[in-house]
Amino acid sequence: CYIWLTAYLFLSPSLFSTVNLLDSKASQGELGWISSPSHGWEEISGVDEHYTPIRTFQVCNVMEYSQNNWLRTNWIPRNSAQKIYVELKFTLRDCNSIPMVLTCKETFNLHYLETDEDQGSKFREHQFSKIDTIAADESFTQMDLGDRILKLNTEVREVGPMTKTGFYLAFQDVGACVALVSVRVYFKKCPFTVRNLAMFPDTVPTDSQSLVEVRGSCVNNSREEDPPKMYCSTEGEWLVPIGKCLCNIGYEERGVACQACRPGFYKASSGNVKCSKCPPHSYTHQEGAVHCGCEKNYFRAEEDPVSMACSRPPSAPRNVISAINETSVILDWTWPADSGGRKDVTFNVVCKRCWPGPRQCEPCQGAVRFLPRATGLTNTTVTVVDLLAHTNYTFEIDAQNGVSSLAPTVRQYAAVTITTNQAAPSAVTVIKKDRTSRNSISLSWMEPERPNGIILDYEVKYYEKQEQETSYTILRSKGTNVTLNGLKPDTNYLLQIRARTAAGYGGSSRKFEFETSPDSFSISSENSQVVLIAVSSAVAIILLTVVLYIVISRFCRYSKSKHPDEKRLPFGNGHLRLPGIKTYVDPHTYEDPSQAVHEFAKELEASCIAIDKVVGAGEFGEVCSGRLKLPSKKEICVAIKTLKAGYTEKQRRDFLSEASIMGQFDHPNIIRLEGVVTRSKPVMIVTEYMENGSLDGFLRKHDAQFTVIQLVGMLRGIASGMKYLSDMGYVHRDLAARNILVNSNLVCKVSDFGLSRVLEDDPEAAYTTRGGKIPIRWTAPEAIAYRKFTSASDVWSYGIVLWEVMSYGERPYWEMSNQDVIKAVDEGYRLPPPMECPATLYQLMLDCWQKDRNNRPKFEQIVSILDKLIRNPSSLKITASTASRPVNLLLDRTSTDITSFHTMGDWLESARTLPCKDAFRGVSYSSCDTLAKTSAEICLTEIRPAATCPEWEPSMGITTL
Ligand code: ACK
């Protein structure tokens, strides 16, 4: 009892969301209610079970005939309530325990009267309306009195909608022995709350079924990210929080408020992240900092993020080494000892030309080149070329980083001084071919750009290109031209030239290619003819192959379309079909759709059909009920869908496509096609007649009138029909209770097939941002987002149908807008369990609504689960009660576990202890599947109780299935 009480205190939201309008126990003095006649109800002082003084009323005129004693409360102002609750605590004497009574009742009546003002002591009983007769669950006897046992009854009744300013309650006794211990009158409200940093005010629900939409306002120091919204239910519970507020910069979420960052912490972005500690070498002494300032001598570059430590310029590079090569030098150094706390260190090299003696330097002239460059070096090396020979240079290398420009300018650099050597000449760059013959070539070239001294001679090196420098010839020339003789005709040669001075050879020129003249250059006319013939034959062969390929592929396609069996798509709606399993054929794959109709639907004579009355309206015309009498067959009741006059060819095609689809199915839970009338007008589709019409309307009409087993039986039928469709490779796309038909035996059948009209026709279908039309509330998120319709998305819709059935045709997500539904589902919220819904069924719904479609159950598994539930009805007794679920009724799947069965194994374990245990004893899980399936098939598809199933009793309504 203690545990129960504790759980109730923590979990029940309604405990904190009721407002008392009257509480008789709270009154210290006389209540002063009116008693009529005055010797009827009597006000008495007493104590409650905790010995707290209370005022009670009692009456016990059981020794007299014809009692009619009224007790009227004082006037109770209604406040803003529309629906009020009356909680009565009372004791009642067992009539059998009173000896020699003349008149004794064990009930009394509760009445009310609405008025706009207090009528004082004026009391007329005929003005009152009866709320209910109140009976005791427990009555006490003389013996209980002796034992001092108080058998207190508690009853609660709802009254509403209330419209006037206030009301009276009245208690009518007609001869009972009753004591009214307490009367509490209250209404429910959604209490002030803060959710997602938005404040929602106290809200009184309306009396009607619809929810009250309430906009939240952001708490101090926060801003709207997405408009915050919640819905207040009639039960005073907040539902579906959507949208949120985010703490401003400098503020973080603490509890349900946005509070300033403490000194030493900062927050630079709005959002619900915590304030961060100031990064190294930075600080803040104020609260609510959006960034931290840098310590002395530390800086932050403009592009540095505020989360980065403050840094300082690097120290100088170290250990500079030079390697001189004639008039070039390679400088190398090591990284600075302190990079200043940054990685973006670069180096700049300054070149100075110096003279001996007192140090005189000036910046190097423009001719000096740095490889790769002089500034912004990221590596610790640079090559300096084109220096003057026999000259002194000083190179200063300084290190910089991203904050060097912010720091006071104290240059940190390392220097090195060098003297260059004599330089060799630079390379020959311009070579010109003067003359070529079969065996020789004459060349000339220009002197190198920088000879660096007197050119003694040129070295000319050449070789046959194909010999790859394995053998070459070298010639020396004093001048800038040469003729190479003794070459092979029609041959390619490569050649390089370099100059020589007293300092040695200069760099080689790049490789220069030339070709000697051939012996002759003509193709004989005989050869050219052979070439011509070869080319034309090749072209002819290619052309012939192409033509043959086109002809053969056309022929194959044509012959395929000639054989009906071959017309089936190898993949039905994206599913790999197994050979031997009948697959659904998309009528669109027929060039002529009327051919599809006649292949799958029987043509009926209009004279065989008698129309009785119109039962509804479809997209294409009226839906009628009637009779079909085929020669030598019994007359049967049928539904007739007609195509209205003035239809277009496309409408006729779409209308008949439903028959082409339906005609392919043959299953007890799929609406059966009797035939079509296409040869006379009106064009008709004739199906079996379903006496109870659409499931949604049927359930609404019979609210709370079925046993859970009956509902599960209906759901099992729908799942079985859907399993058949998914096995056929057909994706329904519009599975909803409105598209399920119910016959007189409560057998449910899937209906509403079609192609384009599947969604065009459905009034629930709405246009999505991608332009398609989709019944949002029933459709899986991936199908809404990117039109990924699969049997798994049908399973999602099945979960919604499951919810519709268990809530007797309630509209999924009530009056929420489609956009809000998409957003809420995307944020992980799911519909709450319908009232009195078995926990196992709610768990099944949640499984069908798994975000990842691969985690949803297959229809085959759903059928098997439902079969097991039917075989073991006691497992349906545990309800997913609203008292034990979180305040947020649209549940986040990840944070919720409402059932006691986590796995089918758990479930079967419990099944073994329940009434069906004999059937399960010694059975492994897998064979139990088979067992359940077999017996459920016997019991359900044949619609009779199974003799082998002891727990199926007619009282459970199974016979009506
Ligand atoms: O809910 P209802 O009475 O059942 O209203 C709709 C209406 O036609 C438009 O679809 C009813 N209806 C459709 N097909 C059948 C059928 N095979 N048997 C009985 N009623 C049908 C449906």
From TrEMBL:
Alphabetical list of Gene3D superfamilies matching this protein: ephrin a2 ectodomain, Galactose-binding domain-like, Immunoglobulins, Phosphorylase Kinase, domain 1, Transferase(Phosphotransferase) domain 1, Tumor Necrosis Factor Receptor, subunit A, domain 2
Compartments reported by the entry: Cell membrane
Record key words, sorted: ATP-binding, Cell membrane, Disulfide bond, Glycoprotein, Kinase, Membrane, Nucleotide-binding, Phosphoprotein, Receptor, Repeat, Signal, Transferase, Transmembrane, Transmembrane helix, Tyrosine-protein kinase
Membrane topology, from the record: Single-pass type I membrane protein
Protein name: receptor protein-tyrosine kinase
One Gene Ontology CC term in the entry: plasma membrane
Every Protein kinase domain range: 609-870
PROSITE patterns the UniProt entry points to: EPH_LBD, FN3, PROTEIN_KINASE_ATP, PROTEIN_KINASE_DOM, PROTEIN_KINASE_TYR, RECEPTOR_TYR_KIN_V_1, RECEPTOR_TYR_KIN_V_2
Cystine residue pairs: 60-177, 95-104
Chief subcellular location: membrane
Signal sequence bounds: 1-21
Source organism phylogeny: Eukaryota, Metazoa, Chordata, Craniata, Vertebrata
